[in-house]
């Protein structure tokens, strides 16, 4: 401790000066130091260093889930949530910025530790402040929260070991992590975990339908939510939207939560920074980074919860089975099979690592604002086997998620547009020279017919978004609300036209 506190090594005192005559005729013989020096006086014993009274020790993290176990599953032979053995060298808790419960300050010349912590908060404040408009006090409280009033310390949401090396991702994490939760769903002997994004201070949370229904296995799963600070709450299902795999739950008795800030997902560019926050494999408060890999992407996913839409999208040629190589980033048990219905959804593609359990979590931009709700991943081998990150992940754009979530909160369900046409991918139509959605037939009195669309037309854009196949068109139509107006661009006999339509309602 001598180097930290600036003390001298124990058992030593400074040598005393030797008094000499003012004008000796010759130098006096040297006096042996042992005879001239004052006998050393040992310093008073000091108590061993440790946390000050009333300051809770840093909590020991639970053991990581072993490979081959489902997320959240307890190790064999131990009770779920049992405490791990204390670490050999426990880490001391980080001091709160307000100094509450802090140990006595060391000498002024050796205040490197405290200065580093505050400097780290300032750096993070600058990083977030420039991007997200947050002040240093906010960031400091996120990175170094004050001790809770109870006897137990809540887990840290963002860990900073080197305050001199904090970066923009640290700042983004400090803002976003408190707005993301871990969701545990169980029904009988089945169960699993996923993630969710806080919408309101009183506990509304958006997530995926396949998380709260165990991929359509149940409509009344028991739901438990763990917030980033380690508090566990019961939750109730508000409503699901299996058409876009979104759902809203309500944390019971919640208040003072941190809602996510929304961004305009339609203003994104390919190459923009992305940060994914969630609970892959049950590992809460996990943060990964990447970029927007592609926009205006649409995917088809097999979903046991999906209803029969009644409006077929023909032309599944080229897909790797129903749903193609895309699967929900499932956080429980074996991945769902490829049978049954499928859904077509518009997504943001990112290379930020997304793994099973990230479903329902946040994909945010460089300012920590929500740009998407993580929903699915691609797998290299198609169906079967365990899914994992290969750098191709998908999130439902925030503009769609916000509309659907608000409708669920207001009415318990969400609406989706209906064009009233049967379509197939133009690339598989004999004689076609362009890509798009080929109209095979129209429904009498439907939006397509009323807008002047006919059999043989090839739709190339919907509300300005490029359409390259039938999945693109269906995903864009479903993303719009029932009764909304839309502009359809199409090609007929080599000429390009556009028409405005009023969408019907998908039942």
Oligomer: single chain
- The portion of residues assigned to helices is 10-25%
Largest sheet: 6 strands, antiparallel, barrel
* First and last CA, distance: 72 Å
Word description of this protein:
The radius of gyration is 31 Å and the shape is globular. Helix content is 15%, strand content 26%. It has helices at residues 2-5, 33-36, 112-132, 136-143, 168-176, 209-212, 398-411, 447-450, 470-479; strands at residues 180-187, 190-198, 204-207, 222-226, 232-241, 246-251, 273-278, 286-302, 326-328, 342-350, 362-364, 370-378, 393-397, 417-418, 421-425, 437-442, 458-462, 465-466, 485-492, 495-502, 504-505. With 507 residues, the protein is α+β, with helices and mostly antiparallel strands. α3 packs across α4.
